[in-house]
Specification:
The chain has helices at 41-47, 121-126, 128-140, 157-168, 182-188, 199-206, 222-228, 257-268, 285-294; strands at residues 2-5, 16-19, 29-39, 57-62, 66-74, 86-90, 96-98, 104-108, 112-114, 148-152, 172-177, 191-194, 211-216, 229-237, 249-250, 276-281, 300-304. It is of the alpha/beta class and 306 residues long. It has two domains: 2-127 and 274-304, Medium-chain alcohol dehydrogenases, catalytic domain (Quinone Oxidoreductase, Chain A, domain 1, Alpha-Beta Complex), CATH 3.90.180; 132-250, 3-Layer(aba) Sandwich (Rossmann fold), CATH 3.40.50. Strands 3, 5, 6, 8, 9, 16 and 17 form a seven-stranded mixed beta sheet that branches. α4 links the parallel β10 (148-152) and β11 (172-177). The longest helix is centred in the middle third of the chain and has 13 residues, at 128-140. The protein is globular, with a radius of gyration of 19 Å. GO terms for molecular function: oxidoreductase activity.
């Protein structure tokens, strides 16, 4: 099979289009013919060596944790899926090596969900990591209807999903973003506010009594979070571990088939929009990484395969 690989840490220049043997399919796994693979900032951060203290890496590495495709084979004891099923997954494994930037990938059943018919493979490949991060952070805090939720970084990949998930749950959503993105946030279901100096006052204009939940997807906003949080309110961050010292949750997304299936149901119901900013062919993975690293995309970046 063709796959994008790297044999040492570095930038996009270390990526190579390689020819590898097809992966073996173990018990509790499915083999997926990859149709699309989401590109996430964590992918190039892993490639730079930024997660080396946390995860074992075996070179050469195929990057990518988001995948959508068609089941080509099933391993032992896999009654959940059959050959030909269209699936999607946040397919992070316990070590860094066999990712989704390839023509084929094995996926643990615990991570895989059926692709909604309403989603293209590109949309399904863009959803898992960012969508699960948003879903798990909000539900870890106890999201319920009637709450007021502040989303820091509401226009980003994770934040835009969080806005929609919270709105679909019946919450009122306030989202921070630059002014040029405010109209998009309104379309997703948020009341937009400009981030930066004066943020606390602007949030208080929308919610004088404070907010019930705060989710931080950018970092560096703990002081503002605490200033607008109600007594008894809860907050979480994926970007700032110091929130733990103020009673917050510091989160790392987990592969979870049931959570991913719930996101698929929201998409099928029309409550979750998945915007693909740009799709690159597999061979142009380095350019896809560069586009992600620029940080200006208003939607998800994906690789298309096959």
């Amino acid at each position: 099979m063709k796959a994008i690989t790297y044999s040492s840490y570095g930038g996009p220049e270390v990526l190579t289009l390689s020819e590898l043997e097809d992966p073996k399919v173990g018990p509790g796994e499915i083999l997926v013919d990859v149709r699309a693979a989401g590109v996430n900032p964590v992918d190039w951060k892993v490639m730079s060596g930024g997660l080396d203290p946390l995860m074992t890496t075996t070179f050469p590495v195929i990057p990518g944790w988001d995948v959508a495709g068609v089941v080509a084979a099933v391993g032992l004891d896999v009654p959940e899926f059959s050959v030909g099923d269209a699936v999607m997954a946040y397919a992070r494994k316990d070590w860094v090596q066999a990712g989704s930037f390839a023509e084929k990938m094995t996926v643990p059943v615990r991570a895989a969900a059926r692709k909604p018919d309403s989603l293209s493979f590109a949309q399904a490949g863009a959803l898992p990591l960012a969508g699960l991060t948003a879903h798990q952070s909000l539900h870890r805090l106890g999201l319920t209807a009637g709450q007021t939720v502040l989303v820091h970084g509401a226009n980003g990949g994770v934040g835009s999903f969080a806005v929609q998930i919270a709105a679909a749950a019946g919450a009122r959503v306030i989202g921070t973003a630059s002014e040029r993105n405010h109209e998009r946030l309104r379309g997703l279901g948020a009341e937009p506010v400009e981030y930066g100096e004066g943020l606390v006052g602007r949030v208080r204009e929308h919610a004088p009594e404070g907010v019930d939940l705060v989710v931080d997807y950018v970092g560096g906003v703990l002081e503002q979070t605490l200033a607008v949080l109600k007594d008894g309110g809860r907050h979480a961050s994926i970007a700032d571990g110091s929130v733990v010292g103020s009673g917050g949750e510091y989160l790392w997304v987990r592969p979870d088939a049931a959570d991913l299936a719930a996101l698929g149901e929201l998409a099928e119901a029309g409550d979750l929009r998945i915007d693909v900013e740009r799709a690159f062919p597999l061979a142009e993975a380095a350019d896809a990484f560069r586009a992600s690293m620029e940080g200006h995309a208003r939607g998800k970046i994906v690789l298309t395969v096959g």
